[in-house]
Amino acid sequence: MSQSNVDLVRRVHEALNTRDERALPELFDPEFVWVQNPNAPDPRTFHGHDGIRELVATVDDAFDEVRLEPAELIEVGDRVVVLGQMKARGKGSGIPIEEDRAWIWTVRDGKVVRHETYADHPSALEAAGLKAEDSA
What we know:
Elements: H1 3-18, H2 24-27, E1 28-35, E2 45-47, H3 48-62, E3 63-76, E4 79-90, E5 96-108, E6 111-118, H4 121-127
Parallel strand pairs: 1-6
Antiparallel strand pairs: 1-2, 3-4, 4-5, 5-6
């Protein structure tokens, strides 16, 4: 696989962090599936472009600020494993949240077709068939 999958995932994180809804058709396949972390405010699975917009709206209802900050991107076949942090501030409470998160993005034909959120790095690495020592 090429660096283009990693570049695409970097663009996805930037678009989500800046809420660039115009980027959705360019980055996400129309049949896209987002499998949310079971501990998320709304842990269901979201589908397609409408689903990603609904997810963003749900997150924005729960938090004043949210950033998905990738620290390490590891390409594994058609998937990119991202190890990083979610930084947020609770809506109304103003309570800051900084938690390790990991994401697995599956890419096909230059678009993201699937996303899975993990509450910790080891779980994502295991799901991708990697071990903790496989990350730098």
